[in-house]
Specification:
The protein contains 7 helices and no strands. Helix content is 79%, strand content 0%. The chain starts with 13 loop residues before the first helix and ends with a helix.
């Protein structure tokens, strides 16, 4: 039995605890999230514009239009995230290593977007009046696909691509 007079720390369980944890997480990472959103917003406009130019304007297949627009937008986003969103995390990491990881995780993000296009194509077989049109393709690729992929990419970038440099003591020990 404990003889301490201190009350135990409040537990964060249940819906109220989840909201408190989410609020705390947002508060701690607000600046980082805002920079990520700014870079991502710019890349999204590029992705959306190129996708529609190629798909609707140049009559490309929506699969190829999404692949090319994502590659171009990814290159712009890499520069913005490396030099602005996570500039303090660059450390001595080589840009080519970060770029390779960045494209790897964007490849997964692209697969998420293509998965949404694939789902839309399947739904178009069942309900063509709702899913076999330019609006449905755009929503699948650029709303659901990009939205789900963005959530994945944020955590992948901050965890594996733009990691915190190791503290000086750890860096000296490993040298």
């Amino acid at each position: 039995m404990s003889t301490s007079t201190e009350a135990p720390p409040p537990t964060r369980s249940g819906p109220r605890g989840l909201v408190a944890r989410a609020t705390d997480l947002l508060r701690r990472h607000a600046a980082e999230l805002m920079r990520f959103a700014g870079v991502g917003g710019t890349a999204y406009v590029i992705d959306l514009g190129l996708f529609n130019l190629m798909y609707l304007g140049l009559d490309w297949s929506y699969w190829w239009a999404k692949v090319v627009s994502t590659i171009v937008a990814t290159t712009v986003a890499f520069a913005g995230n490396r030099h602005w969103t996570w500039r303090e995390r660059r450390g001595s990491a080589a840009a080519h290593r970060q770029y390779a990881l960045y494209f790897f995780f964007n490849g997964i993000g692209l697969l998420i977007s293509l998965g949404c296009l694939w789902a839309n194509a399947g739904l178009a077989q069942v309900w063509p009046q709702y899913f076999d049109n330019e609006l449905a393709v755009n929503l699948a690729a650029n709303f659901f696909g990009v939205g789900l992929a963005t959530i994945f990419r944020f955590f992948a970038y901050r965890t594996w691509v733009f990691r915190h440099p190791p503290p000086l003591a750890e860096a000296l020990e490993s040298a």
